[in-house]
Amino acid sequence: MAQASHKLLILASSSPRRQELIRSLGWPFEIRVSEADETVEDLLSPAQIVEMLSLRKANAVYAQRSHSEPSAVVIGSDTIVVFDGQVLGKPVDEEDSFRMLSALQGNTHEVFSGVACVDSATGEHIVSHRVTRVKMKPLSSEQIARYIATGEPSDKAGSYAIQGLGATIVEGIEGDYFNVVGLPLSLLSDQLKSFNIHVL
Ligand SMILES: Cc1cn([C@H]2C[C@H](O)[C@@H](COP(=O)(O)OP(=O)(O)OP(=O)(O)O)O2)c(=O)[nH]c1=O
Fold it and tell me: Which residues form the active site (predicted)?
């Protein structure tokens, strides 16, 4: 059971999905969001991209800590979809969503999520990632257009949400479901052990 004397978790994320998922750990946490630049060099691999951005997000919040605060672990995360060598982030507009979903439908893609934990007292960090394979059903242009019209794809990597209506267009997955939603809790709980946080 989490006790008040235990180190706090600070989730460096504006994502409502990540906020909801971290709650399931049953550990005291707060949300702090800081703008981190999400541009990366072209030559990086998907794993390098999500690890670099996760750490950047956590470090942006770490940099703003006050030295008088009790020590905490700052958590940053980043999710991308990778298909046919292409990295798909969040769509810029509906046309972009249409392009992404037209490519993903009927095929299998990979979802990469990075997680970084930074000790707010020492700046020490751990960063890692997980990959989940997702097979999407074949979809007609009309179905894709109807899905986009719901608004759900607009702020999701790859333009779909497996935890929402997007569940109906997914045929199956291989790997951690929570990795697709945006925060692999199994990986995170392992990382937290290095900071002496045992959620179970
Ligand atoms: C594939 C997929 C992605 N997503 C979401 C998770 C992330 O919120 C988003 C990927 O964008 P990110 O840039 O990883 O995260 P974010 O900008 O939403 O939040 P922050 O940087 O503040 O932490 O896509 C789903 O919710 N469901 C899915 O099935």
Answer: 78 (proton acceptor)
